[in-house]
Amino acid sequence: MDYKDLKIPNHVGIIMDGNGRWAKERGMSRSKGHEAGFENLKKLSEYIYSKGVKVLSIYAFSTENFKRSKQEVDFLMNLFENKFKEYSNRLKEKNVKIVFSGKKEAPLPNGVIRIMNEIEEDTKDRTDGILNICINYGGHLEIVEATKKISALVRDGKLSLDDITEENFYHYLFQDLPPIDFLIRTSGEIRISNFMLYQLSYAEMYFPKIYFPAFDEDCFDEAILAYNKRDRRFGGIKDENTNH
Ligand code: IPE
Ligand code: IPE
Ligand code: MG
Question: 20 to 30 A Cα–Cα from 158, which one of 35, 50, 104, 188?
């Protein structure tokens, strides 16, 4: 689809949900659903950058996802450890930097933490776009961690209370990214599940009833058309002179 006359969100968030149900519908294991979801992500993310989106944040594994079976958690951790490097190389062509949000510590396996650090280092000089991958991530956790960083700076006399603002609070989050303009959650669930709470304050939200492995380029086109119909007011009033 031609995006020429369309508004393109600067920062898109995707809660990639429904891998398990996609697989179940096909009589396959949940693992196959995660594999299919990852394959879809590779194609979809390249398409999204090619349309002019600068920042893409994706929810890959929440702090709460550790409640799942050991088998499923191990499968996902192996996928991150073994497949992310290739993905990062593939994004080189698009000059996209990869960063991770979330706590890089146990229960994340050391192998995954090592890969995350290596990828951040390898891609740090890429300048055309950012892929923010949320792993061992929680929105509450992120805000609490930011509060701790700020408190320590204030305690040590390096930051004064008056210098903490809504704008520079972003600086203390896991990654210093712009606010999210457009959030897509696949699978039909209408909830945020602890995803990027601070950055989502004025995001437009879109909840297609389609599982993530099936959310392809055409589905993204449809999402962008829906985004273009939204009237983003940010608390203001569009036409000040009517309806008094
Ligand atoms: C999202 O798909 C991927 C992760 C949470 C890692 P799910 O695994 O949640 O799939 P459903 O929601 O069970 O279908
Ligand atoms: C959110 O999906 C987390 C990811 C997509 C990684 P979940 O499937 O974990 O969310 P709930 O449990 O349905 O809220
Ligand atoms: Mg789910």
Answer: 104
Nearest CA to ligand 2 atom 1: 193
Residue 211 lies in a domain: yes
146 assigned to some structural domain? no
Residue nearest to atom 9 of ligand 2 (CA): 65
pLDDT given at position 240: 64
Number of domains in the chain: 1
The full 3-state SS of the chain, as one line of letters, equals: CCCCCCCCCCEEEEECCCHHHHHHHCCCCHHHHHHHHHHHHHHHHHHHHHCCCCEEEEEEEEHHHHHCCHHHHHHHHHHHHHHHHHHHHHCCCCCEEEEEECCCCCCCCHHHHHHHHHHHHHHCCCCCEEEEEEEEECHHHHHHHHHHHHHHHHHCCCCCHHHCCCCHHHHHCCCCCCCCCEEEECCCCCCCCCCCCCCCCCCEEECCCCCHHHCCHHHHHHHHHHHHHCCCCCCCCCCCCCCC
Whole domain around residue 43: which residue ranges? 11-138+178-228
> Ligand 2 atom 12: the closest Cα is on which residue?
193
Q: From the alpha carbon of 61, which atom of ligand 1 is closest?
A: 6
Q: Give the residue ranges of the chain where pLDDT is below 50.
A: none
Query: What is the value of pTM for the model shown?
Result: 0.97
Check residue 113 and give its pLDDT: 98
Cα of 60 from ligand 2 centre, angstroms: 9
Rounded distance from Cα 44 to ligand 3 centre (Å): 19
65 is catalytic: yes
**Ligand 1 pocket, 113 CB below 6 A?**
no
Determine if ligand 1 sits within 6 Å of the CB of residue 104: no
Let me know if residue 212 belongs to a domain: yes
Here the CATH number for the domain that contains residue 201 is 3.40.1180.10
